[in-house]
Design a protein that fits this description.
Elements (H helix, E strand, L loop, with lengths): L3 H14 L5 H6 L2 H7 L4 H4 L14 H7 L4 H14 L5
Length: 89
């Protein structure tokens, strides 16, 4: 069963699939939802130690900051990937 915050996050990702996501939107996505929807995003996250460990329940922004990644740079790369990639089905 999907809880309410998880459903809201999935709705947010689906809404941006039809347009280009920006850094602020991606910053608020849960890691697990980003990786599930855009599996290639893991190639940008894993060098910084960000993965779906612990269920990927942190937001992308929080996870990047926790791992001392250059948050704005990685978010810009993720936005480019999301804007050009086809979501996983």
């Amino acid at each position: 069963m999907t809880n309410e915050p998880e459903r809201e996050n999935n709705d947010m990702i689906q809404a941006t699939q039809s347009s280009h996501a920006n850094n602020d939107e991606i910053r608020e996505w849960l890691v697990r939802d980003l990786v599930e929807t855009y599996p290639m995003s893991l190639s940008l996250l894993s060098p910084w130690g960000v993965d779906t460990c612990c269920g990927g329940a942190r937001t992308v922004g929080d996870a990047l900051a926790l791992h001392h990644a250059p948050v704005d740079d990685v978010l810009a790369q993720l936005a480019e990937l999301v804007g050009s990639a086809q979501p996983a089905s």
